[in-house]
């Protein structure tokens, strides 16, 4: 016999945990189901530990920038404290007891296992069945998308998980994929002394961002000794005692001790039983409306909705779903000002539309660019000051529809631009703001001048 509860949350990643915890705290009977670790990818194999690694590698880079600026330096990388910090501080050795206790402390009931939909309102975990009288929430996230490259399957390649868990540095590393994850890890490992090659099948890195961002990323990686190959997809992978050999479409081969596959993320609905509630198990994502509803009494949040594999999107969607389930007022989902940051050095942050996307939408587009090294703060900063600010304006409405902020703190400067895009602040009003001197965000003012 099924156990009746108010809500069943299937998947306790960032979004699912947020929904489950808030609904439990509101007094509903909530069962939260998770097969792996409560909190999902971000705290254990994603944003948090990777940024610890990047923080460490950036310290090495800053140390190497001392000559000519503040004296002499000798930098000797040591991976041991980085691995220890990830193990002990970030992940508790990949143990989610703290997260489980956080959820159950709010009144939720935690079930460890793989949940499968079994008809409307019903979820099975092994032999147990839970019947949700009020809501089923799906937050099962994504997994690494592994391309069907000849010879790859069955080899001990890395995904982001193995890279994060690495207790020792590889001498050499091949990275398949020139997106955010691949570039962040490539630069980080290179700064610790690993010989790194990045292979991207498309004609530029960060292919969904501005071309200026792609060029900046390529220059930054080259400065750290990373070899970048673009426009050549991997055709064959071989693994042996000497490591990995990857053969490209042009017949050239690249060898390294380890191979990191960072070719995106994918949603897997086939194992969730979505067909039992009339949804397509072959779909690339779960379609939801602006209240996160997939069907009557079924909500979905996070990566599974196809709105980008971002923790901040999952948490944003979770808030909307919670309000809707509780019948509380609040605005619908609005992704016009979706921010994203690639945490390379320089950081590359973007919000809203790129110039290309804006033109494809038929907007009347005007752009402006300010170069960070030409700004007063960039000149002061000197070593490591590469970057730019690019604005994309809709001239008919007189507002920004997109922006990129790249530089030493590009992700932080992005906050002001996200407010401008989200709030549809008139460009003329932005022109007449007071920008603190000398800060990196004065690059916005420089880009506005170029927009004229």
Automatic annotation (TrEMBL):
A Pfam family of this chain: Pyr_redox_dim
The entry's keywords: FAD, Flavoprotein, NAD, Nucleotide-binding
Keyword Ribosomal protein: no
Protein name: Pyridine nucleotide-disulfide oxidoreductase
Disulphide linkage map: 42-47
Cofactor note: Binds 1 FAD per subunit.
Domain of life from the UniProt record: Bacteria
Pyridine nucleotide-disulphide oxidoreductase dimerisation domain span: 339-446
An annotated Gene Ontology molecular function: flavin adenine dinucleotide binding
SUPFAM superfamilies the record matches: FAD/NAD(P)-binding domain, FAD/NAD-linked reductases, dimerisation (C-terminal) domain
